[in-house]
Structures are given as C-alpha cells and as structure tokens.
Amino acid sequence: MTLEEKAGQLVQYFDFGGATVAGADTTGVDLETAIAKGDVGAMLFVTDPARINELQRIAVTKTRLKIPLLFGFDVIHGLRTIMPVPIGVAASWDPDIAEKGQAVAAAEARAVGIHWTFAPMVDITLDPRWGRMVEGAGEDPVLGSAMAAAQVRGFQGKAIGEPGHVIAGPKHFVGYGASLGGRDYDEVDLSENQLRNTYLPPFKAAIDAGAGNIMSAYMGLNGVPAAANHWLLTEILRKEWGFKGFVVSDANGVNSLEPQGMAVDQKQAAVRALEAGMDLAMSVPSGPSPMLGLVDAVRKGELDEQVLDDAVRRLLEAKFRMGLFENPYVDPAKAAKVLEDPEHRRVARLAAERSAVLLTNDAGLLPLDRKALKSIAVLGPLAASGQDTLGPWVFPANGPKAISILEGLRTKLGDGAKVEYATGVAWPTRKNRSFFDDINKPEPRLPVDEKVEFAKALDLVKSSDVTVMVLGEPQNMEGESASRSDLSLPGEQQKLLEAAIATGKPVVVVLMGVRPFNLGDARPGALLEAWYPGSEGGTAVANLLVGDAVPGGKLPFSWIGSAAQAPYTYSFLPSHQPAGADTRYWNEDNSPTWPFGYGLSYTSFAYDDVKVDRAAIKRGEAVTVSFVLRNTGARVGDEVAQLYLHQRTGTSSRPVRQLKKFARVTLKPGESRRMQFTLSAEDLRYWSDATKSWIQDRSTFDIWVGGNSQAQATTRFAVVE
Length: 721
Ligand code: NOJ
What we know:
This protein has 721 residues and is α/β, with parallel strands linked by helices. It has 21 helices and 26 strands.
C-alpha cells in the first residue's frame, strides 16, 4: 500500500444524504470523488441499502486496491424496531433481554448494509442532569458491566463476522458521564480510584465479551483529551487489557484536538491521536480529514510509519472479519423482510414490559380493575405521540414507528371502557437548538391552546373513573446535547398533575423520559416509570396497567430529590460522621426519594435465612451466600434479588455498600426458593490509590440481600489471611 492508501483507510466521513445540518458544514469534500481517490476507509450515517451499495461500488471498482468501505451507524436501541432506551433496558436487570434486543437491532442493521454500531454506550453517570444518561445503564459498575457485556453479545453474536450481526463499539472511552455540572461535553477530572473502580469496569466487561471496536470520548480526562490520551488508549486498553480491535474517535474528535489546544494544526492532531493509540478518525467532511495529513507526517519523519501500519492493519482486519472482501454489497430485497419480522416487535414488547419500574402504588390502584372500569381519561401530549414513545437516537429515515400509550390503551380496553383523551398542556420549548432537531426531525408539534386544553383535561378527570397521565420529556429533550439544570417536569405538567390530584379522583402517572423527575409534594395514586419504551411501548404499558404484565424492573440509579443533590450514588464512602449521613444539607435531605435498585410489584417478596457457607476464608478463596426468597403476595411476579457488600476496614476506605450480584426471578404466589450467590476473590478486590494497585485486604465483610440498595437481611464473613 502507498502512504496515501494507508492514510485513506483511517478516514471515516458522515453522509447526511444532502441534508443541511446545523453546525455541520458538509460542503468541503465531494464524497464520491474522495472515495474514488481512496481517501475514505469508512462511512457513517448511511442507512439506505441502495446508497450503501452505490458508495461501496465506487470503493471496490474505482480504487486501485479495491478495499471495501466499512459502514458504521448509531444503532443505539434499534433501527426500525425500537427497543426501550438503554437505561430502561438496564432497569430490567435482565441481561438476557438486553442481549435479545440488541440482536434484533443487529439483524436489522446488517440487513440494510451496516457493519458496525456505535454502541453500547457504557458510560457510568451519577448525574441525571446529563442528558445522555438515557443511553447508558446508570450509576453502578456491576449492573453496567452486565449490561455492557450482554449488549456486545447481542450485537456481535458468537464472533465478529457472524451473519446477521455487527461489530460493537462501546463508548465513550472514558469518563464522559462525569462531566462538570452534568453539562454535556464539559471537562472531566476523575481519580484513578474512581476510574478503575467505577468508570472503567463496563468497558473492560465489553472488551472481555469480545467487542471489536471502542470509541474514544470527546472531553479531556484529567486535562488530556481522550482522543490523544496515550494512557487510556495504549497503556490501559491495549497493554493492560489486550484489546485487539480498532479505536475510532468520536465525531470530529481528532479534528478537535486543535481547538482543544493539543495541536497546532490538523496534521499534528492526527499524529498525536495516532501516537496515543487512535486508529480511525470520524469526521464531518467540512474539509479533508486530518488523517490525510499523515502522509506528509511520515515523509517528514514526524510519525513512525509502523504506527500508521498498525492502525491500518486493525481496520483491514475488521473488514476481513466482517467478510467484506468476499461480500461487499447488501441485498436490498432481503432487508425489507428482516425489518418487518414480527418476532422483533415481540422482543420489543417484552423488553418494554420488563423494563418498567413501579415507583408507587397506593392502596393497590394498579393493576386497574378492567371489569369495574367504564371510563378512563388519558392526558398529556406524550400519551398520544408515537414519535416521543421511541425516545432519542431514532431516525425517521429508517421508518421506526411506535404504538402510543393512548393507542395501546384503546386497543387493550376495546369496547369495555370509554377511553377519552386531552393533551392538557402544550409541548415544552427548548432554549438552545440541538443538532438532533435537524437530523432527527421531530413531527411538527401542533400548537395547543393551553387554557382550553387544561380545562378540558380537568373535565375529563372529573367525569372518568380513572385518569392515566403520561408525563415527562419529549424525545429530543434527553440524549446528546440535552442536559438540564433542573429535574422538574417541563412546562405546565406539574400544574396539571396537581390539579388532577386535587379533584380527588384516582390518578395514575406514567412517566416517559428517564430523568428522576421531582414531583414536589404531588402524590398520584400510582406512578409507573416507563422510560421511552420504544416501538411496542403503548402495548406494553397497557398490559402493565391492567395486569396482563407485572412490573418487575428496578431503578438503575438513585432517584434523587432534586438536581441540587447531583452527582449522587448509593455507594458513597463512609464519612467521619457516619451517623449524620442525612445532615449534609441545611435545607433538604441528602438521601434519595427512591434508592438505587428500588421498584415495586403487584405482589410482594420477603427475604429470610441469609447465611454464608464459611464464616472465614483465605485471600483468593470464594464464599457462597444463600437466602430464601418468598413471594408473599397473591400474584405471580418477578423480583430482582440483589446482594450488597461492605468491607469494614482496608488499605483504602471502602463504600458503605456495593452491588455485587443480582438475579431476576419469577415466583408464584406463596412460592419460595433458596437462592445463592458466590463471591469470588475478584469480587472482593478493588483498586487502591494508596498502593496504586489492585488489592484484596483481610477484613470483615458485611452482606445484605434484598430488593433494593437499602436491603436489610444481613450476614457477614471474614477474610482472615
Ligand atoms: C457524537 C456522539 O457523541 C457519539 O455517541 C455518536 O456515536 C457520534 N456523534 C456519531 O453520531
């Protein structure tokens, strides 16, 4: 390969298909000419099979070496069939459904010609102001790692190149979720203690599960932008973890090294990125990719050609493994069949049912008594909007559709009850424009005469047996570039909620959106968190409301009481004043409204007889904790049994509690089961900043098992030598 051909392999360009996108000047490069010249190795954002073939044909017929292009895309929670948003799936605490959902996403993506997805997003965050919380698995490294590995298995199948699967690219390496103030793209400073014990484990789990790619983050980590961070991309990723796949920058992440003060020009940006361990630069083609400057850099001795060769080899290997040299094209005729596979909708419905979390259910209002119910009021613009039900990271061009909650209820209740609807409030408006408002073109928001609608909604509440209000945030109010500085319900929703409750009629609130909304003193009869439930959202929510499905999800983050409490984790370090744990603010509690791991069911569970198989073990040995879980209610239901650990003393101070194990099980009424979890030496080890190493201490360890992070059933064991 010539130097030019090598550099070209490291270039990835967007193709917006001629669309004008705010902040993205796409006029600088003529894509087809660049591909024909061999200046492009990969593409993103092309999802039309005909267009994929067209661009591929240029690469494999017009260039000297006929190297096919690799097509990547943000298949975050589905392409045509949309699963609940990733944090919703994490709330299922069911890695199996996460794997199945992403296998569906992979099948659809591969069918249209996509080879690689920029997912799973495995960023831990303790800060729900950060809009991208929706894409991850929440605050916990153990739950996050399980979800990361499951999604990689779903996307990739057994090995890279398996038919109907795509390469997985966990992102954003690393620390993006800890941005200052929860502001998207802001800087991040994390100690090695936090990185190694909390933020890195989900990435490690994704790589151990075989992920073929990793995407670096935008921001500076401890002052060094992730795209040029040698410690991250080479020391940890390749040397410690043995990662063999390719690394891609986030969009314009290599270009941005110049404004970030790491390079004097684009050529130097590319050199610094490559030397740090970057392979491929993802860029909006507003000008030639910085990677093309590597030709000159090698010629002038500014970059060792070996570094370039290594990067190129990794890209070519991905293409070989995906079988692109044998089969560069996709068959558009087959795509339609895969995209409409009814099995995909079934998985989406199941995932939505399993992800819902029941937060309150006063006096057993839910499930609704279908026989007694004659009229039901459905309120809120989100209730009737299929588009919002899908959540962010969904593109109209791929034809996704969702059953809205209103439709779901109408279908479910049939002629049995009168279902009437009022929007009640207007759509919230945003202060700052987002890139996603352009590329993700929301349906036009119809103007609402709020005064008229508000009154109409209240009349409906009064004249109906029960009201279901769907409250939350519209599709693009969460996700990238959608941080918020407060956690209240946007617009007039809170006012409508309070007015509805004040009528004295029963009110069920279904939350759409993933922020821990602060509902003030408003206490609806029941509160069901549905996240953005995806294509089958309306069907799933209707099933849950009438009891054809039973909520069994649990919160994957602490539901803080206000934005002022962020960042927050249940897994904090004991302070010098442990008894005063709730006295840290003058004006409010510092404990959350609902703890991490919390969620109710239509039945109830009890934990008894927790014990360990050995009270004392040696370092390196395992200990097994067992307990009896019993369904004490009158319905079949799921419980997520959780095991938390606390190490009393050590080389470092250890968190008050840490999730170590969990299992979601289904029990019939009255059924009990002895369950067990085995803690290995790996589970007891941690990174200490005192020794700058992984260690396992001798100490006493407290164990709790239960249905959330405030579990009470307890036992202990000791590591004695
Ligand atoms: C920027 C986002 O940070 C990243 O998650 C995404 O994959 C790329 N844009 C491509 O859309």
